């Protein structure tokens, strides 16, 4: 016991604990989504992979079976915000606006599967860069999310093209006074107005450090828009939009 106390005295700042005492139970609450820049620290920084992939969800074990999820989340990332801190990325300098970040399998309770198999990726990742900013993001999205779709890689990316083509992106995002600040509700209302057949609740806004990072659209497994479940939209009163 004296030896243990000595160790604890030497390691007080490390939070030493008696090994005979049970450790605290992990919280069952979902961890908050990291901001855009926090996520950038977790992913390679040479592509849009770190742009705005924020989460309020816990994530399911990586051995989750492919095809077991409730709906899709189509993430359209605002490239100017990413490029404001990643000027050397191959996607930057191209005057891009919203680009596809991914089509993510989701669960209604807020969880999400990842890395569900080692299935081969798309036959030509570069061919997907008409809507994705880089081929490296294409490969990352397949490995992390596409393998959980239950589809082959080529079929999965065909679904992404279909989902993206169905959404009309407002032309006025990032114009006017947006750089000085606009409410998330205003930005979401523009998407709702441009897509009147979509339920307004099918759109969610992603922000980091009070800046627009992405707009997300909740879709059924057969790509019909539906109200979002378990997806937290940006709670900022005002967000700034980095201009193109």
Give an overview of the whole structure:
With 244 residues, the protein is of the alpha+beta class. It has a single domain, classed as Ribonuclease T2-like (Ribonuclease Rh, Chain A), CATH 3.90.730. The chain is built from 6 helices and 4 strands. A hairpin with a 2-residue loop joins strand 3 and strand 4. The longest helix has 14 residues. The chain is globular and about 45 Å long. The relative contact order is 0.17.
- For the record, what is the CATH homologous superfamily label? Ribonuclease T2-like
Strand order of the largest sheet: 2-1-4-3
Report the CATH architecture: Alpha-Beta Complex
Work out the helix count.
Answer: 6
The structure class reads alpha+beta
Tally of individual domains? 1
Largest sheet features:
4 strands, antiparallel
Radius of gyration: 20 Å
Features:
244 residues; alpha+beta; Ribonuclease Rh, Chain A; four-stranded antiparallel beta sheet; 13% strand; globular; disordered N terminus
Question: What's the layout of helices and strands?
Answer:
Blueprint: H1 2-10, H2 36-40, E1 71-78, H3 79-83, E2 98-106, H4 135-144, H5 153-166, H6 184-194, E3 203-208, E4 211-219
Antiparallel strand pairs: 1-2, 1-4, 3-4
Short note summarizing the structure:
With 244 residues, the chain is an alpha+beta fold.
């Amino acid at each position: 016991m004296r030896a243990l106390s000595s160790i604890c005295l030497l390691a007080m700042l490390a939070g030493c604990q008696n090994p005979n005492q049970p450790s605290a139970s992990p919280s069952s609450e979902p961890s908050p989504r990291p901001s855009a820049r926090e996520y950038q620290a977790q992913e390679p920084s040479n592509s849009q992979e770190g742009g705005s992939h924020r989460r309020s969800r816990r994530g399911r074990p990586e051995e989750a079976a492919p095809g077991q999820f409730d709906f899709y989340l189509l993430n359209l990332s605002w490239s100017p915000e990413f490029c404001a801190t990643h000027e050397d990325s191959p996607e930057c300098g191209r005057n891009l606006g919203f680009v596809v970040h991914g089509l993510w399998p989701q669960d209604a309770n807020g969880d999400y599967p990842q890395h569900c198999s080692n299935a081969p990726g798309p036959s030509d990742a570069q061919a997907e860069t008409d809507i994705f900013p880089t081929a490296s993001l294409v490969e990352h999205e397949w490995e992390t999310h596409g393998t959980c779709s239950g589809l082959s890689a080529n079929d999965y990316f065909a679904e992404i093209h279909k989902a993206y083509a169905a959404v009309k992106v407002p032309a006025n995002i990032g114009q006017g006074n947006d750089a000085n600040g606009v409410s998330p509700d205003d930005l979401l209302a523009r998407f709702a107005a441009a897509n009147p057949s979509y339920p307004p609740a099918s759109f969610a806004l992603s922000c980091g450090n009070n800046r627009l990072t992405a707009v997300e659209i909740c879709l059924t497994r057969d790509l019909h828009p539906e109200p979002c479940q378990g997806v937290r939209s940006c709670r900022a009163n005002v967000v700034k939009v980095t201009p193109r």
